[in-house]
Amino acid sequence: VKCRAHHHHAPAPPPPPPPHHQTHNVMKLYHQTGSDVGPLILSTGFRPGTQGWCGGGIYFATSAQATKTKAIGPDSHKGYLLEATVDVGRVKYMPKACDRSLNGQSVLSEGFDSVSFDPGDGQEYIVYSNSRILSVRHIPL
Asked: Which helix (H) or strand (E) holds 115?
């Protein structure tokens, strides 16, 4: 009787990650706007602002309370609170003054999906595309 040699095959290596590997990092964040603009955002989505500490983006605070002191820029309005589920992805953390020249293109080209900074009254997160915002709901103030 002849014995057959048993060949053990090594498991196949895992497939390489897809190009532009997506990093998911989902957070609940808050944005206060005017009662004229809020319903528009709910129906058509956020549009990045034209200016801000970190350039023209969509700015969020980490708590509903913090939006009361944060909605102070020239593009800001008050009175209508939105809670958003945002995929901030890979976050670029910036110093207190941030960088007004930032934009979605420059942030993405460095491998980041969003920017975060603390101007002195709490952390803020900025995304540059409405596609990072997974859902939005109105919360009465």
From this structure: strand 114-117
